[in-house]
Design a protein that fits this description.
Elements (H helix, E strand, L loop, with lengths): L1 H34 L6 H5 L8 H29 L4 H21 L6 H36 L1
Helix pairs in contact: 1-3, 1-5, 3-4, 4-5
């Protein structure tokens, strides 16, 4: 169970990295498309034959951010009750709460664009929490091995 906990924590961290790459691709693809003569308005997004630059990056960012990461964080939280990782429940809860904050910021940023700054910053926090949760499993296993060797 500890290995699954660690793997899931690292998978969440990797998904945050994919999120960063996807949104960068989306924005730079959009810039390239506009520089090439594309016009961005609501009709461009609603048209079925629309080929807005970077559209795939935006889609991947939304799908992973609204569906994959929240489900993975919830699974980690549930798993934390069974994995018996010292402090594992606490770190999984921190991660889950950061995912909730991140998702809310994404939703509210459509109305208040300045929240996008916080959305980016919380992504870094989320990455850090996920990596910390994963590292704690290995660190705890090493501490346990050392203490049993000494005694």
């Amino acid at each position: 169970m500890k290995n699954v906990y660690r793997a899931l924590a690292y998978i969440i961290a990797a998904l945050v990295v994919v999120q960063a790459g996807a949104i960068a691709y989306g924005v730079f693809g959009l810039f390239n498309w506009v520089e090439g003569g594309g016009t961005l308005d609501q009709a461009a997004f609603e048209a079925e034959d629309s080929n807005v630059g970077g559209g795939l990056g935006f889609l991947v960012h939304v799908m992973i951010g609204y569906y994959v990461i929240p489900v993975a964080a919830l699974l980690l939280l549930v798993l934390s009750f069974f994995a018996k990782v010292p402090g594992g429940i606490r770190w999984a809860l921190f991660l889950f709460l950061a995912v909730i904050v991140q998702t809310l910021l994404a939703g509210f940023a459509h109305a208040l664009a300045g929240l996008g700054w916080l959305h980016g910053m919380v992504a870094l926090v989320l990455f850090g929490i996920a990596v910390t949760a994963g590292i704690r499993v290995r660190r705890n296993a090493q501490e346990t091995a050392v203490s049993t060797t000494i005694t």
